[in-house]
Write a structure and sequence with these properties.
Helix content: 25-40%
Number of helices: 12
Radius of gyration: 20 Å
Structural class: alpha/beta
Number of strands: 15
CATH architecture of the largest domain: Alpha-Beta Complex
CATH class of the largest domain: Alpha Beta
Shape: globular
Strand content: 15-25%
CATH superfamily of the largest domain: Medium-chain alcohol dehydrogenases, catalytic domain
């Protein structure tokens, strides 16, 4: 079978590999759709090292085989399998940080979601990491469960009341967050984005204003739109390091910057730390999602509360994976979906 694999930093290739088999407690899923994520691009570049070097985690498909002892799943079921699952019992999980659980990154889809089929480990199956897709959710929409779950968890770490908001980066995560902010009642929701195609999609999805940070002074423009006060919330949905400091500077006193995008390792924050105290602004990071958020994401997608289909601009068969990566690297797409 075919699978897209990391080989060396800066490269990935589609190769022929042996098909996986389901061991005790495991399932094998035939991939039907898998979203190409920004973290996949960073892993290919060699700049994202927080998780194992496996690409393809926004995968959905059909159960192909079921290992001994698996209950509640059978061949032919349409499913979303979560690539990382926390234990829910350790001090870190009980302390409210389940995505920091020592077990969370201990497993993954094998050999990854960009494959004709992949194995879901026993741990993930046993810890309720596999969701059944209802008939109302097609595979393409289902591929958004994981990224939407990440945005849900991030906004769950924000203050309960959000008036004005700025989203920095209108890639898939930013556009999902934009829609969630609307559901939370945020108004206005402003956007900063360099890609013309992504900026236009942000406008279509209801952004009050969209600025290009390469030509516009986003901090000054945000101040103008908020009558000098600054936004309640600035959500950083890009890995571009300088956007973090920019987000902090757009906040009102007491505002919150949410860090959803993963900056490149070794970056530096150009921001006066006294402002964390003198202006009482906060920087709150959010990493990944748990089964609580994946279930919430599936519900929102099934009820069409979040329009994930509007984000898909490109589709590539697995054999054209390298081409898909190049299109995404150049930000010529909003969301690229890989199919068998």
């Amino acid at each position: 079978m075919k699978a897209a694999l990391l080989r060396t930093p800066g490269g990935a290739a589609v190769e022929e590999v042996p098909p996986p088999e389901a061991g005790p407690g495991e399932i094998v899923v035939a991939m039907r759709a898998c979203g190409l994520c920004g973290s996949d691009l960073e892993k290919i570049r060699g700049t994202y090292t927080a998780a194992p070097p496996v690409i393809g985690h926004e995968a959905v498909g059909v159960v192909k085989s079921v290992g001994e002892g698996v209950e509640g799943l059978r061949r032919g079921m349409r499913v979303f399998p979560h690539h990382h699952v926390a234990c829910g019992r350790c001090p870190i999980c009980r302390g409210g940080s389940p995505t920091m659980c020592p077990h969370y990154r201990g497993t993954n889809l094998e050999p990854g979601g960009f494959a004709d089929s992949f194995r879901v480990p026993r741990w993930n199956v046993a810890h309720r990491g596999v969701l059944r897709l209802p008939p109302s959710v097609d595979f393409e929409r289902g591929a958004f469960i994981e990224p939407l779950a990440c945005a849900i968890r991030a906004l769950g770490r924000a203050p309960a009341t959000i008036g004005s908001a700025l989203v920095l980066g209108a890639g898939p995560m930013g556009l999902l967050s934009l829609q969630l902010l609307h559901l939370r009642g945020a108004d206005p929701v402003l956007v900063s984005e360099v890609s013309a195609v992504r900026a236009e999609r942000a406008r279509e999805l209801g952004a009050a204003m969209v600025w290009d940070p390469t030509t516009d002074d986003v901090v000054a423009a945000t101040r103008r739109e908020t009558k000098g006060g600054g936004v309640d919330l600035a959500l950083v949905a890009t890995g571009h390091g300088p956007a973090i400091a920019q987000a902090l500077r757009t906040l009102r006193p007491g505002g919150t910057a949410l860090l959803l995008g993963v900056p490149e390792k070794g970056g530096r924050l150009d921001f006066d730390p006294t402002e964390f105290v003198t202006r009482e602004v906060s920087l709150v990071p959010s990493n990944a999602a748990t089964e609580a958020e994946t279930r919430r994401a599936l519900d929102l997608i099934a009820r069409r509360k979040v329009d994930v289909a509007r984000l898909v601009t490109h589709r590539f068969p697995l054999e054209r994976f390298v081409e898909a990566v190049e299109v995404a690297r150049r930000a010529e797409c909003v969301k690229a979906i890989i199919t068998p």
